Queue: 3 jobs
Job 1
Amino acid sequence: MTAPPPSRTLDHPPRDAIRLEGVLHALSDPMRLRIVRRLAAAEDELSCSLFGLPISKSTTTHHFRVLRESGVIQQCYRGTAKMNGLRRDDLDALFPGLLDSLLRAAALQARRLREG
Amino acid sequence: MTAPPPSRTLDHPPRDAIRLEGVLHALSDPMRLRIVRRLAAAEDELSCSLFGLPISKSTTTHHFRVLRESGVIQQCYRGTAKMNGLRRDDLDALFPGLLDSLLRAAALQARRLREG
């Protein structure tokens, strides 16, 4: 008998355990905001490896975990790839209009800083 | 000659130094979110002592400082009182609609948790 493989499912808060404070904390970091903007633009699940962030792999993993544990994204394994998707339905149901408002604010700031 | 009194003005970031990440970090704490909701409801400046938060005076001071340094509130002395006001004009100019969207989300969550 061999030991069972380590679990390949990841913990996610159910919708009613998602808290505004946790969502805002998750989005209060420039890298995590960048990840969320990219996912929103893609309108699809994206593999972690696609983001090409200018940070170490372990820091990248940390940021994705903070986003998952706060309820902002869902993560699942597809073969060897870890796929990420925005939990838009959950966030829109809990906080109508907030995600779009945050994405607009982030886009405005990015443009302002680029043109600054 | 006597030494000049210690400065009674407090540092505030100018509008163009306010960052979305800093605003979201400031609002990612339940006490700070509560302070901001109260200021938004008051539509006026309020003295720190009015809030009656269930935390120590030094923690209260810390929370107000985080809100000020992120550009969410302005603080000034009136006699012995430290007065606080939302920087609504600055926030609305930088991130149109965001503050109202955040306040709505906070109100919805407060109702949901109360009724939960």
Job 2
Amino acid sequence: MQVVITAVGPDHVGLADPIIHYVTNLGANIAEIQMYDHDEEALFAMLLRIELADEQYEAACEALKEIGRLKKLSVRVWSPQKRSQKPRLAICVTYRSEPALALLRAIRDGQISAEAAVMIGNRDACRGIAEQFNIDWHRIGDKQGQVDHRQMVQLLDQYEVDYVVLARYMRVLPPAVCWEYAGGRIINLHHGLLPSFPGIRPYHEAYASRMLTYGATCHFIVPELDAGNQIIYQSTFTIPHGMKLDEVIRLGQEDNEPQCLVEGVRRVVEGEVQLHFHRVVARK
Amino acid sequence: MQVVITAVGPDHVGLADPIIHYVTNLGANIAEIQMYDHDEEALFAMLLRIELADEQYEAACEALKEIGRLKKLSVRVWSPQKRSQKPRLAICVTYRSEPALALLRAIRDGQISAEAAVMIGNRDACRGIAEQFNIDWHRIGDKQGQVDHRQMVQLLDQYEVDYVVLARYMRVLPPAVCWEYAGGRIINLHHGLLPSFPGIRPYHEAYASRMLTYGATCHFIVPELDAGNQIIYQSTFTIPHGMKLDEVIRLGQEDNEPQCLVEGVRRVVEGEVQLHFHRVVARK
Amino acid sequence: MQVVITAVGPDHVGLADPIIHYVTNLGANIAEIQMYDHDEEALFAMLLRIELADEQYEAACEALKEIGRLKKLSVRVWSPQKRSQKPRLAICVTYRSEPALALLRAIRDGQISAEAAVMIGNRDACRGIAEQFNIDWHRIGDKQGQVDHRQMVQLLDQYEVDYVVLARYMRVLPPAVCWEYAGGRIINLHHGLLPSFPGIRPYHEAYASRMLTYGATCHFIVPELDAGNQIIYQSTFTIPHGMKLDEVIRLGQEDNEPQCLVEGVRRVVEGEVQLHFHRVVARK
Amino acid sequence: MQVVITAVGPDHVGLADPIIHYVTNLGANIAEIQMYDHDEEALFAMLLRIELADEQYEAACEALKEIGRLKKLSVRVWSPQKRSQKPRLAICVTYRSEPALALLRAIRDGQISAEAAVMIGNRDACRGIAEQFNIDWHRIGDKQGQVDHRQMVQLLDQYEVDYVVLARYMRVLPPAVCWEYAGGRIINLHHGLLPSFPGIRPYHEAYASRMLTYGATCHFIVPELDAGNQIIYQSTFTIPHGMKLDEVIRLGQEDNEPQCLVEGVRRVVEGEVQLHFHRVVARK
């Protein structure tokens, strides 16, 4: 089975060696290793993707977490095959509710075979949707919407989340969080076509360029400064001349974005695509 | 009626004054004036868009062309309303035949109300299509495909062309040609989404960015160094993961590009859109 | 003499015609006309650059302003040759004082032959400098620094300003203001290399790109949506590896930016460069 | 001592495991691992940076090369400390001779403490310089300048090269070559400011943008599709208005580029900077 191991700690001395030693002694096949050393913060991270015999999985989880405890590292072991029938999603939101709502409806209607384990917001705007669908809601932001992202990670762990879905969650995840859930577990909806319109106002920028085609992009977040956009799905719509920006945004937010997120999440949870060496590839 | 006057000459001394004098004395309303002075070549150009009483049109044409003869300027007078039932098109090509073919079929089938007045190629690759549709064909390129663009302008004048359609014509029009036919008369098909992928290999660039959405753009060519893309129509298609670049290009060239050009030309010749101060606007 | 006429009004009906009529009847040579029609606001603008006999200047000023009064247009007539010995500057600021201070010192020390006619701030941060150099100070911003730019134009007119110097004035001038003072009269200091780093955080962006070279750009502001940067002067500095961003910004703000602005303003007020068809050219 | 191990092979099955096993059994500290899987070619690569006791180095070289022979991998072991007094350079060229010439003079005059081990060209244009400085010359390009880059790697190995200096070598190194010499051993001179002007005609592009500042960039080449530019040194020069492009290019090629390359190479061979997790950092 494919197993993803992530480790995050304050420096690389004593991080890579014990984990790699353990894995090589286990006789696992190493499919991918990536390491990362942040230059501004004391943050060292590693991703291992390995092939393991099914019966070794539980013991490996235990042993690696024990290494984490001993070495004071944040270690996670996860396999996309463990819960492939019903992966557990955390749906993270800020103001816009349409994409989250579309995703919850798609799950309810059996269009997407997943479980909405928890909803997390840095604002209260989408709390009503969580109530409507009877899903646990956690507000993690303060009055200004500022987030202590360690709290987010605690929630993700507590709810045993397989995938983190950023459904118009308008905060940048810090590198540490990206690494904790590295390996194709964080799915973001961006409200513009990537890589052309990466900013926070993609509708405005495309409109200022007088484009007639607008789009949204569903992609994995990869914790590398220079990593490109790991696109899972993109959808577009075309407008007539003279349409006002407000109307364009409305079309995008109410129709195109929700549809884009639903299809993107479907592709991931049904195992059609996976992250492989910073690229999204079709899973054979 | 709306009348577009263009004038091109080697310098601005004595270019603007006589034409503007004539037009103001005529009592015409001036809707737009743009001037241009190339800094590397001796090339001065002016565009006037005016409102004229219908009965003044013929006399104004004569008088302005006479000014051109006297002052050694290249002067053109044109009105989109003169031949609005059946505008005459020049279809310019290089290698790819699909967009031109789709356009000719759309004209034949009455989908676009225009007349294919002439086909112009800098290569011979599309000659057969001209023969098939019984349209005059002119090859203007030498063995390397290099073009004397004055010859192109002569042909455009000789065939009394209203609109110049660059149907995957793979040469850059020099500024002088753009000015001779300024005012929304040159329609280009670009095989990528503008403004994101402006280069000569937009499929390759979008593919290298791992995009899943590809597009084509039909736009006016505006003879300003810094002018943005004057988009008439854009169309897109989405591919699955793992599709080879060859296949993407094939889909784009054989399906998306022809459709994009046909719809773009239709919008122009049916008067749905027009160029107005460097912008494409819906014609009221 | 070279004369620049600008006119701004709510629509083009009746704007261009009377001014162009007057100018052509005057027998002036027209060197440049540019027109502009804003698509979101009711804003129409025109720039004329003409050659006029010196003795006609005063009468033309009067007549054109009278046309403005009659037609309810905002009309300005200006010549760079009228006050070429001691052009009058408005120095506009927000927080950073270093560029303004360097400019005032250069004027005091005779390095730049100009007069600091007025200082305008949307914040109070630089008021002390105005007092120190005994220059009239006007605060035009509210508590949030928001500006009524009509008030700015009134001040510029009242102080008979030749050039507007934006010395780290951190507000975007609306198109109407740019047109009122079009023709190479608005000089901006941008704290990054243009066109590569156009945003509001150019140091951060260049730093994130791990550049070792940082720069500043002094340029004319041109009131066209698509106009490129009209660069008057650029200066750069190179840093060693490992320098913190704070230190880079400090070097740039305290040393490179002030020097860049002083040299740029010097080039303009001493007539070394001018704006000519959207380009900065050396004045012969 | 710091040791860099690179391995390149046709797939990852059996590549990572034996090398990582060997290194972990050796008791070496792992400082960095990066892996790469090309999606278009069958190309798998790995970089390990480890800390090793000095006395283990020779044995580790032997053992790892033996693993390479057995597993049919291309394995290289290298340490920047092995020949730190006089690193051996391969200087690769195409047409322009100035940067190579400046580098050879700096070596001759003791400004740079390195040895020019070999000159490699895909054209013959710079052969005379190799003869003048009595350095072995190898032409690796055919009549069109096309290169079999395996031949280049053979030469680099044969001459026991520490650093590969691309002194205006106008070919793109294929990923395999970049990986063989990964870890901060390939130094490129780019004739524009990175990341703003990355193309093959940076002077033309900056000139078309009407910049007054031009630059050159000395950087490591890193074999990642999405890696940013690993800048070692940048230098710039400023031009007056009206300077012709030819003259700008001449200034850049004859003065700025050579100086940029010499300073960049000096920083590397004297150990002032090194590559560390895709970043250039000051070596402590």
Job 3
Amino acid sequence: MPRTLVTELTDGQSLDQSFRLADKQIRVNRQGGKYLLLKLADRSGTIVAMMWNADDSDYEKIRRGGYVHCVGRTQVHQGALQVILTAIDDLAETEVDPSDFDQFDAGAADQALATLRDMIENLHNVYLRGLGKAFLSDESFISKLRLGTAAVSNHHAYPGGLLRHTVDLMEVCQFLGPRYPGVDTELLMFGAFLHDLGKIEEISASGELSYTDRGQLVGHIVIGVQMLGDAIAAFEEDADEDFPNDLRLQLEHLIVSHHGQLEFGSPRLPATLEAIALHHIDNLDAKITSFTSLIESDLTNNENWTNYHPSIGRKLWKKQ
Amino acid sequence: MPRTLVTELTDGQSLDQSFRLADKQIRVNRQGGKYLLLKLADRSGTIVAMMWNADDSDYEKIRRGGYVHCVGRTQVHQGALQVILTAIDDLAETEVDPSDFDQFDAGAADQALATLRDMIENLHNVYLRGLGKAFLSDESFISKLRLGTAAVSNHHAYPGGLLRHTVDLMEVCQFLGPRYPGVDTELLMFGAFLHDLGKIEEISASGELSYTDRGQLVGHIVIGVQMLGDAIAAFEEDADEDFPNDLRLQLEHLIVSHHGQLEFGSPRLPATLEAIALHHIDNLDAKITSFTSLIESDLTNNENWTNYHPSIGRKLWKKQ
Amino acid sequence: MPRTLVTELTDGQSLDQSFRLADKQIRVNRQGGKYLLLKLADRSGTIVAMMWNADDSDYEKIRRGGYVHCVGRTQVHQGALQVILTAIDDLAETEVDPSDFDQFDAGAADQALATLRDMIENLHNVYLRGLGKAFLSDESFISKLRLGTAAVSNHHAYPGGLLRHTVDLMEVCQFLGPRYPGVDTELLMFGAFLHDLGKIEEISASGELSYTDRGQLVGHIVIGVQMLGDAIAAFEEDADEDFPNDLRLQLEHLIVSHHGQLEFGSPRLPATLEAIALHHIDNLDAKITSFTSLIESDLTNNENWTNYHPSIGRKLWKKQ
Amino acid sequence: MPRTLVTELTDGQSLDQSFRLADKQIRVNRQGGKYLLLKLADRSGTIVAMMWNADDSDYEKIRRGGYVHCVGRTQVHQGALQVILTAIDDLAETEVDPSDFDQFDAGAADQALATLRDMIENLHNVYLRGLGKAFLSDESFISKLRLGTAAVSNHHAYPGGLLRHTVDLMEVCQFLGPRYPGVDTELLMFGAFLHDLGKIEEISASGELSYTDRGQLVGHIVIGVQMLGDAIAAFEEDADEDFPNDLRLQLEHLIVSHHGQLEFGSPRLPATLEAIALHHIDNLDAKITSFTSLIESDLTNNENWTNYHPSIGRKLWKKQ
Amino acid sequence: MPRTLVTELTDGQSLDQSFRLADKQIRVNRQGGKYLLLKLADRSGTIVAMMWNADDSDYEKIRRGGYVHCVGRTQVHQGALQVILTAIDDLAETEVDPSDFDQFDAGAADQALATLRDMIENLHNVYLRGLGKAFLSDESFISKLRLGTAAVSNHHAYPGGLLRHTVDLMEVCQFLGPRYPGVDTELLMFGAFLHDLGKIEEISASGELSYTDRGQLVGHIVIGVQMLGDAIAAFEEDADEDFPNDLRLQLEHLIVSHHGQLEFGSPRLPATLEAIALHHIDNLDAKITSFTSLIESDLTNNENWTNYHPSIGRKLWKKQ
Amino acid sequence: MPRTLVTELTDGQSLDQSFRLADKQIRVNRQGGKYLLLKLADRSGTIVAMMWNADDSDYEKIRRGGYVHCVGRTQVHQGALQVILTAIDDLAETEVDPSDFDQFDAGAADQALATLRDMIENLHNVYLRGLGKAFLSDESFISKLRLGTAAVSNHHAYPGGLLRHTVDLMEVCQFLGPRYPGVDTELLMFGAFLHDLGKIEEISASGELSYTDRGQLVGHIVIGVQMLGDAIAAFEEDADEDFPNDLRLQLEHLIVSHHGQLEFGSPRLPATLEAIALHHIDNLDAKITSFTSLIESDLTNNENWTNYHPSIGRKLWKKQ
């Protein structure tokens, strides 16, 4: 029997399959009985599960971060899907198909990386091309970039999401730039490449997505400027030539202003054509991607509308 | 001697050429002397002019809306360029080159209209294609659309600007739509076609650009919905078939929500993927176009920065 | 034993009476037992009820939308009143008193309609009077208006509430208009008549109050303008005379601007004396009515103050 | 030749009549010549005037606060009407008609006072009636109330304006109160009486309207509470009976919350039905009165629209 | 066995000790069983407790406001610590150590009072010193001030907290005042003394902290001005001399403006150097104290960060 | 005759003294006459001057940036003081007293630097002390810090102002830190040292104060983080030891969050006790200093109130 992905589970469905055990806790209910409170995961997502009338041995025999075989049934509780288990057992890593649990799509990442390398190598501006190579020749950077996520929740919130978002923006910049005479398309594309790189250090993409201390204390915008500074130093050492100061300031400005407004965390407002363009292209991609995911993940069945989402202050229309 | 366009005038420049007389007034200065206060125009823009020590015959001999020959010199007064005239004379229409004064670029408009017709005729959705033809077969609509402006000031504020902005958006939609699986590209393109049509009735594009009473009392968003209603009625009569209600609601929603937020005058927030996409594509084009025009029209010479613009809360960087 | 209305139920009260079954669901609790989750209604309101240890036959024997006889007891759970049932049975429509369940007060509606007809017929402005008659002679419109609600929750949220709110506003306009010399009282009264008519199509008042697709995608303000357009067309056809354009624009403006500010969903700000007056009179009636209902429906017994209401950012004082 | 009132002056009008000299200054222009900069007033308003080529004797012969005879001509300068004088002379008080210069309409004030006394004396609530009499029997209070203004600019900004606004509100409260069952009409009316009394001490209504130090440091809301405290003390001494504490708190609350929102200077939000009603009735009267005055004082001749007013963020429509 | 303070309880801890019974309720659970819902308190704080399978005699034998002996175990439920009891018994007042339950630290209060008296007596300004003595010689005022709280929750929310906050501010003012030449240090210190005195009447500090009717209807800012008025009257009677009016206005202004902005409840903006200083010094003390308490009371164990606090829109970093 | 400082000039004052010529322009007036438009400066400030009826030789004989001797008279024009010149002559540098023109107070700067060195050297935390020395041993940094300004206008807007503001904050931190148990006083003091250092590169303090390109494109907050990174690199190279990562993050956070809110340009909100304290201490010093300077520079003579300042939304009270 093939597994059903977490995101494809529906209300009232019987389950008899494997999961990754993202978290386990043992709790005492109001009548004094013990139960397990678990988080079950696969590559598509995470779901909460409970097993009533459990005892300490049930808790001990399963490993946080390991794999489990579960028997039970889904139900909707307060608007969210959860699983009520009747049995759970530990599984060895050899007993599962790793592709069921690896959220990261290596093929897609490699393809995106190839596209990225291609765009960087085809830049005519020698400083941008050289600086791009300084980034791309850094193995440690590349391996983090491949796995990076663009967010903890909301849009592109999965390993590989950052790369996908970055390359998408660069392609849109490549199309839109030449439509506006005053815009330097290569500078705009390079801004798209740089704009969210700080997220590599802001969000820990191994295990559960979460913000790092550095991410919370400093934020990806300032981290991105720091990473740019390191790459420019590497370029200058390698090229034995100063990187042009005006170009550096424009690149820093593209990172620093890409949220578009102070209240969204940009310490400076976009003040160049490329900066205003980058902000709006980023916003466009983020908003469409995020609305798509809200519509796709909506569970309300017999309605034309999703639930109300406070973060966007509205319901969305689901057309057939 | 060829004319210098209004937008190409600089400080301290001698003038000896023709203008359109957009406005004329006679005033008394603090010492009791009379002077002329004029607005001189050509296809590129408008400039204020004064002639000191004028008398009533100077005022009488020139016609508001007619052409004049001017001798004088430019100067910057309180940050704006103006002209101090030493002589002014009436010119017959036959004495000027009409192409100097016609702000409207008929060739560009015809090309844009052809592109628009092409995009409409290539739609696969029969209702959208039929509805598009209902608009395009309305001679009166087409002649207004050709001359329409997208704004009184700011971006695309010239006869033909509305059509330019509309076709630009439709082309961007054609490129971006297919990148997002959930988006109906034809619906999005049609939304781009419709979104600002109400401006035809909101802004009077003959003579000085100005808002109509209907424009100020009702606004282009509601007018656009009214125009859509008329076109649907025309389609239904012609096709002898009802226009699908769901499709109508989605088109109305695209118009109604395209400003993106209530405080920008949209009575509803974007609630479909196409609506959120249209808003951001519109915003992107408007912002880049408007920033470009602020940079191009900036007069400060020896600075890397434009003046401070309160409407956007910043100065813009002018790169060489 | 007479029924106790839903809104008059208090904590810890025994129940043995009829309800309308607004909704029924069967659920499984954490220990695997089944229970019924129900919504019980009468003309005064709706209350949630649970019956523990139920089985499928309990669920099958009662009809959603039908009537039931309930035995049980009320309790406060997380600040809201609910009912715990010990027995439930189906009731035939003949076994209940319909007046207990009909939220709509037909007598009050007819009286309000009569007042409305009276005010319309006494208008001196022939165009407004004629347009009013075009509305009032439309049977389908009248039957929807009689049952319409002014909101899904908050003020006047019941069938007939729209008519009540409309006629109330018109009477206040009739009193206040003449106190302000510049105000056209008849125009103001007609604006009050029109301002919320779009809610007839925005909110479905049959069964549970809920927004229609049209309501959510287009909104009552734009719908109201569309309804006005249809009525003007009817007037013109009937009178064989054009409706004055300036008057039409003013009426459209009254609808379009009556929320008073862009961020409250008005695409235009009030720009005529009648528009600013209508907005404030509407606001006054809505606020007093809504505060009254918050005070009346408050359950906290031994306090001078209601609960904190986030929507208005405060508690209200309940005087004895 | 009868005088033309200041507010009825139009552009390009010859003048040969009396004014009150509200202010006089002598200035040196850029060419070293001296000129007079004056403020001319009558009961309807104030206008700026200049007399070029003046000398010290011109300046000396006229008295600030006295009367002058002026010959000259009006003109619009930067959107505002001003007068260019060719002659000016001192006038004795006996040479003018005082009714031309007295902005205060004593008859209207007496009539409003009579209405006020009548409403207070007809209150059924003995405490409110008694407290009202404590105010009305204070000669010093009455003489200030008669002359008080409701604002320095904007609505009701003239001696007598406060009384007019107060009595108007009380009458509206008398009509609206009984329409809302939960509202205590007499309490609401008394709140209307009290709400702006602090303005008597906040604004100096003698000569040019201006804020007092106390007005700017403490504000009319807190001053109003202080005045209420004094009147209650007077009542208690007179009646030899305590004023009920709950009633006192409600009256204080009506004053304190009548601006409706913290950001408009109310330290508490309206939390009683009377308080929310009073705020909206006050707002309604203030807004209609202020918009009326903006329309009436607009100078733009050949337009359907007033100038843009930044304080309300819009132009207003002037219908014929 | 020594008691563990409420604030020192941790998850999964066994309990066998005394508490004050702040509240008791008997409830019926979903299976029809009864349980007790209690609030247990000591001087450090309050915690919710439940005893399952209780009966009416359990409920009857314990007294609200009395003392109880409890046996049970703590657990975290939905992020908050609670206690599940297995036994509860009534305790006589003689069986507990009162110092465990008295939240008020009398020694600290007396010390703070002494500091306050000292600072007042050392003022050189005779009016401020005299006015301060008028306050300090009022026994009833002093006994309320000793016990007053600065807030219902958030910073300094305990009996004695108001005095602590007041004296702290005065000391900071004493240090900072002389650093700024234009600042009148004694006036600033006296403003710090006055600024929150109205909280004595705004918040009831006996039993559970809660707002009084007067507090909610009028607010501590206006109450503070009233208290100042009474003290000035006392001073004038005692000294047989008028208190200087300018000084009175400045003191009133310090109270009235100390929240710094209208939207934070100050009806006037700070307009003197002392007022702007007082606002910022108050804000500084309140913010540091409140952030400290959020960090100290955080329960999340194995994290560097507290929970997200919506009131401040962030998590806080907990360093080791 | 001793010079009168620019800031001590009053209306109607005769002048016969030296100035630095900050700027010179020659203009043509409306009657065709030429005049000089000048900026005259000394150490206290700058004032605009005009000389009517000038010719090209007047313009040529004086040097921008040089010194001039002026004869003329002050006058108030549109609320600002200006000078009307009757004569102007070039002065050699040897003819003026340099101390009249040097805005920078070298003695005060040296004293502040000594205080700063002292505080750094007395830090107990070896990393902070070492890092501080890395800054202080950088000659180029010190010479810029000595002359740096904290703003282009508003508070501390003069060469040396940055150092003054920095040392002031550190002293306040030294006093306040120990009052709050959770606060690390040395970390707080070091944050005060760092917080505005980026202004050294943001604002060009030579000649007229103005923002650099780097300042406008990147901003002092991000520049400050870059400077900290360089100093840490210098420390690590010198000490041959890694700077602790947690400490680095906290220092970066102090810089990044010190504006306190996103909308004031901080990309992160203060999340440590030291960060929230630093923000409020900075704000306190900036606000008192800026209000003091608004009061001191106010020209309105016979009023208790300054002009209205839109930037702070109020007038300020000037006490005698």
